[in-house]
Design brief:
By secondary structure, the chain is α+β, with helices and mostly antiparallel strands. Helix content is about 55%, strand content about 10%.
């Protein structure tokens, strides 16, 4: 029997990636599916579609709906929800690079969930190095050491390559889930379906 695997492609600036990141661990465990977390940047993908910003900004009515929908969703899930007063989407470059360092050392999932809680649960600006410093320190790691590695050529190249791979796979938004046979499931509300598919093809 093959191991059921699901790639979880997420963007820290993505609102719906927040509930997906907070739900995926328990759901995957209950279904016996291994999750591979894949941080990437949506900016280049949006630009390829002719957008200079999130489609939630391009289409204001859609944006207003998204924020209200996320508020309802978080309430249903018991997740804190407090969008910050700053710009949207937030810059996610630093958080993404730090996450890659964390995944190399085994604390990437914890860090990723902490970033989402800070951003959408506490209204903090994750493009502020002070916020990321606080999150790294809370996980028991040295911010100075982590930042040095996050700025290394290998981590920068890896994030660029991972973001390019997302585009090559046909990803156009986050969160996206890709099964071993290449099926793409887009959106937090497709998580359960993606897990079921991953489990079925592994039999």
């Amino acid at each position: 029997m093959l191991v059921a695997v699901l790639d979880f492609w997420f963007e820290f600036a993505s609102t719906y990636s927040y509930p997906a990141a907070m739900r995926i661990g328990a759901l995957a465990g209950a279904n016996g599916v291994e999750i591979r977390w894949r941080p990437f940047l949506l900016g280049p993908i949006f630009k390829a579609q002719g957008w200079e910003t999130s489609p939630f900004n391009v289409y204001p009515a859609k944006g207003r709906y998204m924020w209200r929908d996320l508020e309802r969703l978080c309430a249903d899930l018991g997740l804190p929800f407090r969008p910050g007063p700053g710009h949207f989407p937030q810059g996610s470059l630093l958080a993404s690079r730090v996450a890659l360092v964390g995944f190399e050392d085994g604390w990437g999932e914890e860090f990723s969930r902490a970033v989402y809680r800070a951003e959408f649960g506490e209204g903090k600006q994750i493009d502020d190095p002070a916020v990321i410093t606080e999150l790294i320190r809370a996980l028991g790691h040295s911010p100075e050491t982590v930042f040095a590695r996050a700025q290394s050529a290998s981590i920068k190249d890896r994030l660029r390559a991972q973001s390019a791979q997302a585009q090559q796979l046909g990803i156009f938004g986050a969160p996206s889930f890709i099964t071993a046979d290449g099926e793409i499931f887009w959106g937090n509300d497709r998580l359960e379906q993606a897990l079921a598919w991953a489990k079925r093809i592994a039999v």
